[in-house]
Amino acid sequence: MDSIIQIKGAVNFNITLDPTIWIFDDRKVDLDTYFTSDKVAVDQDEVYLEDAGKFWSREIMEGAAYPPTLETEKKFDRQKMQTGTFGMVLEPFINNASPAPEATQVTFIDRENNEYTYSMEEAKTLLFQFSVEGKMLTDGGPVYLLHADGSNYKNPIKNIVGIKIS
């Protein structure tokens, strides 16, 4: 259970994070391109509707048979998972914990009990790196804490084991 990270403190819901399963999460970001590409705010409902529309359009045009392109797409995704470097933006996890109205700070705690404190707004923009070249982080893991601008990408905050909201 070394990979489990809990969000505790001034929250309505204590949240337990397991970075070992994030590789399958659609919200993961490719860190090889994340810090070099322009960030555009994305409405998740709009993305869902667009993806559903594309799916149904494809079903209508191609029928329910599985054309060879679907297998190629799945193989590409599997290959990308096995070779990519990925992270997760923290905003959805912090929001799901439902911080108390008076909560203004988020503190990240490492294995040596060092604390790294950020404002609530800044903490929501931070990322957890959970893999490098398709492998879980074993040295300094389970996650690395990265700033949204990538300024500490080469020298991340390692060994994060807890999050306290206050």
From TrEMBL:
Keyword set, alphabetical order: Isomerase
Molecular functions (GO terms): isomerase activity
Entry superkingdom: Bacteria
Protein name per the record: Peptidyl-prolyl cis-trans isomerase
